[in-house]
Amino acid sequence: MKRFNAKKISYAVMVGLLSIVLAACGSNNGANQQATDTPATTGESGASSSAPVESPVKETEDVAREAFVVKDQVGNEVNIPGTVKKVYAPGLEDYLVTLGVTPVAQWSTGESPQQYLQYALSGVKEISFANGVPSPESIVDLEPELIIFPTAFYAQNGVHENYSQIASTYVFKNALGNVVEATETIAKMLGLEDKATEAIATYNTKLEATKAQLASISAGKKAIYINANARAIFLVGNFHYGGYVLSELGFAQSALVEGQPSANISLEMLSDIDTDYIFINNNDGLGDAFLADIKASPLWSALPAVKAGQVFEVKGDHWRSSGLIAYQKTMDDIVAFLQP
Amino acid sequence: MQLRWKFTVIAIILLLGFMYSLSTGQSSLSLEELWQTLMGKGTPRQELVLFQFRIPRMILAFLVGGALALAGMLLQALSRNALADPGILGINAGAGLSMMLFLLLQNSSTGLHTYVQPFYALMGGFIVVFLLFLLSYDRIQGIVPIRLIYTGVAIAAAISALMIVLTYVLDPSQYQMIKVWLAGNIGNSNWNHVYAMLPWLIFIVPLIYRNHLVLDVLKLNDPIVISVGVSVNKYRVWFLVCSVLLAAPAVAVSGSIGFVGLVVPHLVRRLFRGHKIMIPACLLIGGGLVVIADALGKMVVANTEIPAGVIVALIGAPYFLYLLIKSDH
């Protein structure tokens, strides 16, 4: 072996350490990026899936329900046990809490779970999705009886094969695009139809009341919900999240996001934001730097909403989540902003 | 050290790596339970974890590592350049791009498609190889090794740019899934992935092994190689094709695990002479490296796993730099 002096060794060590630090930064970015959207959406958000749960053949509403088979939204036959006590449905926690169910584990960005649900879920094991769908070993010890995936993207490339060996696994094409229908589907699987009917009725009542309350403000006006993260700002369309709620409350959409779940815009396109109201989410500080850039731009100050003082900085991850609870909280926020 | 001892050491490290891989994971399985399960006395849960999750994952890691290391060895031999590997020549990127399109187009979550995946990746890989061949071919000299590298680097860069363009049309969660897959994550692999990968190795490795002497001669100057009766161009194309047939299926089942194809052949060349020995050594060391990297990734952070590709890069990059510094003297 050739001799190797200390200088060379220290050089090699430094380069090695640097590569570790760089790699660590890289993986953090991954987690952050995931954190911007809770928890998942797909391109087909708008396409409401017309093949929900098939009615169980002999479903008895009373004491003991029999096991039954349903076809999930990607075409798999799923055996639903008679009683389901332990559920794992990453990204669908809002729906479960709505139905009064505590899952065996909850979705997390790697840093934190969905904050707005922690009043009901604190202490429930967190499973990070920062590196994609975790290996099946992460939940096997929790012995779930039913696993539900909110989007088909979660279930591909071996995931479905593995998870369905642990328990029956139901896959939505995209649950987040149609919250009411997904709540009903989940309730049917868990035998909680009454709870779902009740929750949906409460939601609808609140929606109608809020819509009426804001009728004079929303009439003929446009509103946009903007989600900012470290690298970009997204105008959120009316398929889900805050954009959906604004649309449900009677606000018209900006042409910039029409027909799309979201649109990534550049500084130059700022002047095209023609809405009367702007709601901005800074992703718990992640988007601050980028937002500061935007606000410093003269294009921003020239926007009609900015001139009229109708820009609202919203807080909380319920703005970037789907579910009856998230949507109702978002409604509360909108009312508080517009009718203080 | 004698050959026999070297292989004994490799075998012991490999065995320890296998044991480590089988005994780590997020599900609790003590060494005693592990042994009992192996003996057929485990609970259904323990059997599920060991036989359906851990063993196929470990075998897949081994196969992928071996295939990538061999592909790297072939490319380094045929290009006469120690920097060649499927990643640098753009083969992984090509396979990755076509896999990305495949993942986008397919919506089903059933297992049927696992076997088809390698073919999609091969399409991308072969398109890249065709371009490599076209752009580095000289009418008089045939394939010019150094041009092969330049072309490869350019193609890899172009494909990476294409991938970034593609990410703009993706939804954030689609993008996230693809990004995770590209990081080389085998956490959700199963027997289907093993069955999709294994045939390629079984077919290709003997074909390469039969030509190990040609690989030895290729490192000499072309006129010398031709003078000993080897059709340089024919074999360059042949080995190029073989390397795609190894690398593309590996990319299809594991995403992109870089550095194995670069580092392992280097290490193997330091330990052994002659491709007759280097071929099995690449398989064993490449496979072992990914098995150990994947097992380390399982334990690094409590509630998430680090993709094997990231760990390989963390181990591989400093070692490669060490080799570079050392070879300067």
Written overview of the protein:
The complex is a heterodimer of chains A (340) and B (329). Chain A has 340 residues and is α/β, with parallel strands linked by helices. Chain A has two domains: 68-199, Rossmann fold (3-Layer(aba) Sandwich); 214-338, Nitrogenase molybdenum iron protein domain (Rossmann fold, 3-Layer(aba) Sandwich). Chain A is 39% helix and 14% strand. Chain A has helices at residues 6-35, 93-98, 118-121, 137-140, 152-155, 159-166, 179-190, 193-213, 215-218, 241-248, 288-296, 298-301, 304-307, 324-338, and strands at 68-71, 77-80, 87-88, 105-108, 125-128, 146-149, 168-171, 223-228, 233-236, 262-265, 277-281, 311-314. In chain A, the strands form four sheets. Chain A has a five-stranded mixed sheet with strand order 10-9-8-11-12. In chain A, α8 (193-213) packs parallel to α14 (324-338). The longest helix of chain A has 30 residues, at 6-35. The N and C termini of chain A lie far apart (77 Å). Chain B has 329 residues and is an all-alpha fold. Chain B has a single domain (3-327), classed as ABC transporter involved in vitamin B12 uptake, BtuC (Orthogonal Bundle). Chain B is 76% helix and 1% strand. Chain B has 14 helices and two strands, in the order αααααββααααααααα. Chain B has helices at residues 3-23, 31-38, 44-79, 91-105, 117-136, 145-169, 172-182, 191-210, 212-217, 222-227, 232-254, 260-271, 275-300, 308-327; strands at 137-138, 142-143. In chain B, strands 1-2 form a two-stranded antiparallel ribbon. In chain B, β1 and β2 form a beta hairpin. In chain B, α4 packs antiparallel against α5 (117-136). Chain B is globular, with a radius of gyration of 20 Å. The two termini of chain B are 23 Å apart. The relative contact order of chain B is 0.17. The model of chain B is unreliable at 108-112 (pLDDT under 50). Chains A and B meet through α1, β5, α4, α5 and α6 of A and α3, α7 and α14 of B.
